Amino acid sequence: MKFESIPIPWEQPFQRPRPKRAGMLVDLRRCIGCHGCSVSCKTEHAVPLGSFRTRVHWIQQPGRVQLDFVPLMCNQCTDAPCITACDSGAITRAEDGRVTIDEDVCESGQGCVSACPYDAITVHPQTGKADKCDFCEQRTDDGMNPACVDACPTQALVFGDLDDPEDPVSRAAARPDSSHWREDTGAGPAVVYLGANSQMEKAAPKVQLGDGEAGIVYAQPHDRHLRLGDQADNAEDQR
Amino acid sequence: MSDKTDNSPFGNPSRRDLLRFGAAVSALSVVGCKLTSGSGGTLPAGLPRPVEPLSELTPKPTVCFGCTTHCGVVGWVKDNRVRRISGNPLDPNTGGRVCSKAHSMIAYTEYPERLLYPLERVGKRGEGKWRRITWEEANRKIGARLRAVRDAGTPERFVFHYGRDKTKGFTKRFTDAFGTPHRLNRRSICSSNRRAPLMSYYGREFEWESQDLANTKYVLNFGGNPMEAYQGGLYMAWRLTDARVDRGAKLVTFEVRPSATASVSDEYIAIRPGTDGAVALAMAHVICRDELYDADFWNRWANYPLEDMKRHVEQFTPQWAENESGVPADTIERLAKEFAAAAPAATTMSNRGSAKHYNGAQSDRAIRMLDVLCGTVGKPGGFCLSSLRGWSNRYGQDELPKISAPGPKPKGPKPWKPGTREFETLPKDVQERVAAFPDFWQNKYFGELATPSEYPLSWHWYSMRVGQLVYEYVREGRQKVDVYMSYTLGASYGYPEAKAAREVLMDERLIPFHVAIDIGYSEHAALADIILPDATSLERWDAHGTNNYGLRPYIGLRQPLVTPPGQARSVQEILRDLAHEVGGGMETHFDFDDVEEFYKAWHQNLPMEWEEFKRRGIWTDLERPLDYELYERPVAAADLEGSEMDPETGLIRKNGKVVGLMQDGKPVQGFPTPHRKIGVHDDIFPLAARHVGIPEDDPVASPIATWFHVPAFAAMDRSKQLHFTTFKWNVHTQGRSGHWKYAAEIIHDNPLFIAPETARAHGLEDGAMVEVTVSRPRGYTFRAGEDAPVGSFRQRLKVLPGMSEDLVASSHHVGHWEHGPVGSGKPEGTTAAEAGFDRQLMADPDIARNMWWSKSKGGVGSGVHINDAMPIDPAPLIGGQNWFDNVCTVRQLS
Known about the structure:
By secondary structure, chain A is α+β, with helices and mostly antiparallel strands. Chain A has seven helices and ten strands.
């Protein structure tokens, strides 16, 4: 095929119909830990520094010297504790199953934040409004993939329709080795993982920055213990 | 979607998006913010600038400049601002994929401390006092200085030194037109130790390889890290992932730390630094001993007899390699056999891990030998080579359109042969060395900065130069400098012994005048007399071409998606205007008003309309056969006509130029080497050694791959000393990303990683503050063996299982003292060059409010600068910086 005959993709909208039941596959076997998803997410939503709608953990399981890379985000739980915890009724479930926050209704009660077992909800440091991943509703409404999915260079993240058995996400979910991140929360997480195990779940439980994330080995933002103690000897003292 | 009728491809913003913007505005009354005016309109301070949905943005393709890989991307634009980046699916190297650094192009372009106005220093050099000047004033002053150098008949006293130059020859046009050979670079900092062995094997045209990773079954990776940082890394990352996960290919990585690449590998083998070559030679030993080689391929294409090769590798037994490298002998045996069994759909891969050592060139030659032995070269799934330089009917470019900068092109300076005026300016010892050079070197010799005579293999194939020695050579008086122009160069921060660069730049007797062209106020620009604000990659034109791991030549176009803010200008405009200012004929090579017209003429032979090329951003011919086995392609009929064959060598010459090789009665192209075969054996190494006073029996001079101890490691006292090595993170790129806010949020510190066993053995505790003191290297290198240490720094230890033993490792991207709060960790407004900024236009209140890792918020800060403690350490003959040869002591402070 001659190059000239290839259509120009960005001039033709990606006509993905809004899924009947929105689903996300996180294939850890394919993730290379590049942070493309999380940086793209921050750009897409102008997420403030220190807040995260999605984040990639670099973890080291006990007895294993290689690292594992784990993107975490809102699991769009089927029994979402955040909806119950919200007094203002700002958090609702959309028809396709995703859990969304209406900023206009949010009264900054922050009940959702502590209710979320994944610490996936962030509060905007200036407006006080709750915010979290909603599979990029503003993009999927336009027939696009979520920003993180578009940004993933190795197709470790796949967005799809769990109601369509032929959809790659459904097919992955049907595999015996697929799992949900921390079934033990009882919240009914809906994001599908391939290649996860319970050791990894222990090492990387949260989306937001948190203390005491033992097992996180690289200097990631959540790596709070690097920040303790005397830090006087730093950049400007070195010259 | 179907009822949308407006011009934007994704229709109107949804009601929800309008609500979002409404919410942001209504929040004003809640938090009572002040209004500030930015280029994006009137926004409430302290709130993120509203992020428009893609449907409100206009997409346009260009080429990323987030690292050295240069992926085709699409920028999404509104109100002269790039709001989002996505991949260009037409780019055959990426298939539309990008990494985090592409998104960071926005932070590269919009940050409060970006330079937007020409500046002139008003205090002493380096004092940090600046005034804003007009372009006219800047050009007049710089032009007068340059004209004086040229009028004096000493154009070589103008030195141009770049860090990042992807103009594909535009800056060379300027130095050539001026008449100076001094267009210096940082190739030696980066990759010359790996390029030289490749060019020795495969010819000048192949300074970079293109493994067929999409089809490979087996990859032996010696210290390459394409999942994080590698020229072409992203091109490789997705192909490797597909090959591994979808098709069961095996990736084996030798590394000194669990890098991202080591981590996704099927086997990660922690290796002692500087011993990759020993392992490769032992694998060659196994392959030869068990006759697992492809004898037909070797006999047809290697320039060295197989029997001699087998004798050569007899000494390198797996047990010997185990003793040197720590890699078990049975592992070496097994991997060698696996590699040979998977051949020809198997390939080696290597980069800095193997090459940035004193013995790195010989190590890479040993690694490359495995592909030749097993006949994987040019085969599907194997070690492939694909055309990578600008198209002008070079090797591998048959029938490609000629893509070349428009004329008239300047001729450039003449070589500094004995008897020339320039030759007479050289120090006596240099004159003696150069006078003894063979003609083919004298014809390429242009003085000690451009072609250092002690490192002839840094310029034998082409001018890779030895950038880390430039400042010391200027200090020693090997080259007088009148005007020094730096272009996006971070030497004062990022070169080894960066303090040497700062000392020389601070000495006005050595550098009487320094013009810096840069995007931001870097540590290097801070030591200039005049700073000129450059456009970023989102704001300028460039011709793009590189090797395609999809094995089909293509070209791309970097084009401005937006106009530069303030008074920033692209380097093409800057140099064009300076050329006209200098005059004297220079201006004839820069005779264009519109930069676009220049690039249009550049691409005039493209079989595609200019507007269509701009619309797509990429051109390739999808019907062109893939670049497998280029060496077996027949010599073109036009080349055969009137050619002659040398009956002894089989070489086919036309008009004295070698065009092919007769193989079994067929004229084929062979490899673009002097002998048209693979240069497994290359006498250029002993020749170079002889000319620089290294004994020919020294292993660095070996014409065939060999292995020997890095001298500094051989002399190490392992009870007291450790290896000290550096590495790169995936979100960062060299020394120019410390201020990209989302990248810095992920990686802003550089703790020293250490294996638990090593920490225990040396009584070091996890989390402890330590002082690292680095000693001078040994062997034939700069200031070898001096007792005084190079330097020290303090940082925290971080124990990490899986690190190679006897080693500490720290990344080098962070620890800036310029580049604003994100880069330096200092509070906003303390940077010296306020006159060059526009904090209103480039406002980002998120940084001041939410940079949680800043020290003022109780955070760890922005890392420690380590490059002053890294010795200048050029590899013998080639001059590549031996970044990973450092030996240090580590003393616990707390």
